[in-house]
Structure formats: C-alpha cells, structure tokens
Amino acid sequence: MAKSSKYTSKQPNEQGLIEWTEEENQIWSELVARQLECIKGKACDEYLEGLQKINLPHDRIPQLHELNEALERETGWQVAPVPALIDFDEFFRLLANKQFPVATFIRSREEFDYLQEPDIFHEIFGHCAMLTNPAFAEFTHKYGQLGYAAEKKDRVYLARLYWFTVEFGLMQTKDGLRIYGGGILSSPGETQYVYSNEPEINPLEVLDVLRTPYRIDIMQPLYYTINAIDDLFDISQMDIMAQVRKAKELGLFEPKFPPKNKLAS
C-alpha cells in the first residue's frame, strides 16, 4: 500500500512479549468497555461466543501468544505481528497460511473515536473472536489463498468481497439484524449507524458484492446480509474467480457515495 502511517508497530522483546505502556493499556481498557456496551443486542452469537473462547482481557492489551493458543485450539489459526500498513501481497500470503495480520500499535487518545489504519484494538476486538468460528475461519483462509494466487486487477474485486463480509458483514437472524463484520464491531459510530434508517441493506449475492464500489473513509451507504455464518462456508466452496470474471464483464455498479475530493487526497 502506498500510504504511510504515523504509527509504528511495537516489536516483541526477547521473551516474545510486547511491552505496552500504562497509558496504552488504559486506552485499550476504555475502548473495550465502550464497545462492549455498544454492541449489546447487536453482535451475532458467534462473535460473543468467540470473545469467551479467546478470553479477551478487558484491563490490558493481550499478548499475541495468548490469542494464538485459543485460535490454534479452535480453528488452527494464528495472529502475526505486522507493521502499521502492509501490502496486498503480504496480506494475502498471511491469510493463505492461516495467519491473521495484527498491527502491534494502539491508537492515540487524539484518535480515540476513529483512525483510518487498523490498530490492535480493531484487529483483535473486531476480528479475532470470529476466527474461532470454523465457517468464518475457512472463508477467510480460502479468501487468502485466492487473493495470493490472483492477478493485481482481480485482487481489487476480491477486496470488495472481504470488505462486505469480514469487515462490514451483517446477518439476518431469528432475533433480527446482527453484526459479524469487524469494521462495524470495533466502531461505535458504525454500530449505531447500521441500525438507523440511513443505510441500504441487501441480501448478499457474491456477484453483486464484487461489483459494488466502496470507500473506506465514510459510513457505508450499503451493507450485505447473510442468513447464517455457514453461508460464508458455502461461499468459500464456490468458484469465486469465475464470479470475478463475470463481474469484470458486467462492470461496476454506480457508487452510492460522492467521489473523493481529489484535492484533499
């Protein structure tokens, strides 16, 4: 990725531990407390079960080996420490090897409510609990394998599938709309916004998702829902690259958002 980050990931010490400051642990604690309150009655059951399985600490940032023990036990996954930003090649390579990239820095208090690059709170609170679920884990693994083998122009299409599932996925359940996407689960604003009348919410069809443009710096005008987490497993068994080829032939849908101001970028 061409963008740079003002954050620098922390390196583990000789014991393999990351030395977090008291202030960093405090920021984690406040973020977790706020978001746990925010997602009550909104997060899917699989996510809440996953939080228990990874035994997420509330008072400090977890060490990666703690997460690895839980993920290895449940689905054979691991987390891998990475710099603040990594390129697509490395991102797909890690996922293809059942390693979920975790940038080992936490946001500053000045960016407490929102930062554009994914920090350790987003990666762990947003994503790691879902990786204890076999269907979600298999979908993410298959996605990594496809992406790692894909050409650059096809990766752009695949990125949309990840965006509207792993990051911003919703599920229609017997209890109503529930969240499984980490980009929503780790964001108080987006969590509330999903339940307002503003966004459009449609059933997930892979071909539609591959043709849907998105922007990372705004609230999503459109979300896609699955009916159960096992739907992701079913998608992982499809010929996704055939769908990508079809999406390229058909072209993209008209964006549901204004174009980014070129001068501001």
UniProtKB/TrEMBL annotation:
Residues 1-265 form the Biopterin-dependent aromatic amino acid hydroxylase family profile domain. This is Phenylalanine-4-hydroxylase. It is an enzyme of class 1 (oxidoreductase). One of its GO terms (biological process) is L-phenylalanine catabolic process. Its EC number is 1.14.16.1. Pathway: Amino-acid degradation; L-phenylalanine degradation; acetoacetate and fumarate from L-phenylalanine: step 1/6. It catalyses: (6R)-L-erythro-5,6,7,8-tetrahydrobiopterin + L-phenylalanine + O2 = (4aS,6R)-4a-hydroxy-L-erythro-5,6,7,8-tetrahydrobiopterin + L-tyrosine. Fe cation binds at residues 122, 127, 167. It comes from Pseudoalteromonas rubra. GO terms for molecular function: iron ion binding; phenylalanine 4-monooxygenase activity. Keywords: Iron, Metal-binding, Monooxygenase, Oxidoreductase, Phenylalanine catabolism. Belongs to the biopterin-dependent aromatic amino acid hydroxylase family. Its cofactor is Fe(2+). InterPro entries: ArAA_hydroxylase, ArAA_hydroxylase_Fe/CU_BS, ArAA_hydroxylase_sf, Aro-AA_hydroxylase_C_sf, Aromatic-AA_hydroxylase_C, Phe-4-hydroxylase_mono. The keyword Ligase does not apply. The keyword Transit peptide does not apply.
